[in-house]
Amino acid sequence: EVQLVESGGGLVQPGGSLRLSCAASGFTFSDHHMDWVRQAPGKGLEWVGRSRNKGNSYTTEYAASVKGRFTISRDDSKNSLYLHMNSLKSEDTAVYFCAKAGWWSGNKYYYAMDVWGQGTTVTVSS
Amino acid sequence: QSALTQPASVSGSPGQSITISCTGTSSDIGNYNYVSWYQQHPGKAPKLMIYDVSKRPSGVSNRFSGSKSGNTASLTISGLQAEDEADYYCTSYTTISTWVFGGGTKLTLL
């Protein structure tokens, strides 16, 4: 079964740091791009960033709202994706989802978030 | 990159059809066919319903269909059923190699 499980959320003070983890199973992790998406309380979905696959040299992209403060990394040997969050602000309070960002069909990669975790909650407050 | 524009809410009666619009710019929807739609029930993770503008993943009902014209994408749900009541989000790739979501549309069954 293809599965993603996030962990590491919690309460952190403004200006603090936190690392989220996403454990993947049921698919060849290194073959796939992976995304982080967040959802503030009562609000819509916001794309946070992407870690591209091994074939794309693990390059990353970030939303403007988190660029310079958040870093995405991955450890393919552990089938894990990480989100390192620094200089946290109250507006970073959200449920953070990791998502598998596509799939292969033959030689073509289809870009869409087809598998999601259940999310982990981050609260930034003093 | 500004969020894509969706109506805040739409409603329909069981058996009817509804369409949700998603308006972007020439820097996102208008420039790529990487438009996808997600369904989210309260307290749950989103579920992929449409990808590449109009393709359905395996297991998604053929009552769901997608289209695009210019800078606007649309999701149509035909034969509305109770379980379709949920929030729906569009997303698109952008010219700055990021992804942007719409603000979301709450579908209410009357």
How is this fold's topology laid out?
The complex is a heterodimer of chains A (126) and B (110).
Chain A: E1 3-7, E2 10-12, E3 18-25, E4 34-39, E5 45-51, E6 60-62, E7 70-75, E8 80-85, E9 94-105, E10 108-116, E11 120-124
Chain B: E1 9-12, E2 18-23, E3 35-40, E4 47-50, E5 64-69, E6 72-77, E7 86-93, E8 99-101, E9 105-109
Coarse shape of chain A: elongated
Terminal residue distance of chain A: 40 Å
Radius of gyration of chain A: 14 Å
Write down the secondary-structure element order of chain A: EEEEEEEEEEE
Distance between the termini of chain B: 35 Å
Roughly what is the average pLDDT of chain A, rounded to an integer? 97
Count of DSSP-assigned helices of chain A: 0
What is the share of helical residues of chain B?
A: under 10%
Q: Structural class of the secondary elements of chain B?
A: mainly beta
Strand content of chain A: over 45%
**H/E element sequence of chain B:** EEEEEEEEE
| Structural class based on helices, strands and sheet pairing of chain A | mainly beta
Assembly state: heterodimer
Compute the number of strand runs of chain B: 9
Total number of helices of chain B: 0
Shape of chain B: globular
* Sheet of most strands of chain B: 6 strands, mixed
Biggest sheet descriptor of chain A: 7 strands, mixed
Radius of gyration of chain B: 13 Å
